[in-house]
Specification:
This protein is an all-alpha fold. 79% of the residues lie in helices and 0% in strands. The chain is built from 1 helix and no strands. The chain is rod-shaped. Keywords: Plasmid.
Length: 42
């Protein structure tokens, strides 16, 4: 049972990580569109 919970937690963490990466990329694209002239690389 414990192993099953651990696997679920790991996959949930992975999904969360991928979702936040996707959100960051979307935000980055939007920022690039808005600030094409004043583009500062972070």
């Amino acid at each position: 049972m414990y192993i099953l919970i651990e696997i679920y937690a790991k996959s949930a963490a992975k999904n969360l990580y991928e979702a936040s990466n996707y959100a960051d990329r979307r935000l980055f694209q939007t920022c690039k569109e808005f600030f094409t002239k004043v583009y500062i690389e972070c």
